[in-house]
Amino acid sequence: MLHIILVLLKIIGILLGTLLGLILLAAVLVLCVPVQYRVSFCKNNEKLGGSAAVSWLFHIISVKVCYDKEKGMEQDFCLFGISLLKLLEKRKKKRAEAAGKSKKRINTEEEKLPHSKKQSVHQINSEAFDETEHTPKQERQHDKKTDSEQTEQPLQAAQDAAVPHDTLWEKAERLILRIVHAISRVLRGIISIPLRVLHAVSNFWLTVRDICGKIRQWRSFLNSPEFKAARKAVLKNGRKLLHHVLPKQIRGSVHFGFDDPSFTGQVLAAISLAYPVLPRKLTVIPDFNGQILEADVSARGRIYGIVLVKLAVQTYFKSRVKEIIKQYKEAF
Question: What phi and psi values does residue 253 have, to the nearest 5 degrees?
Answer without folding.
Answer: -145, 150
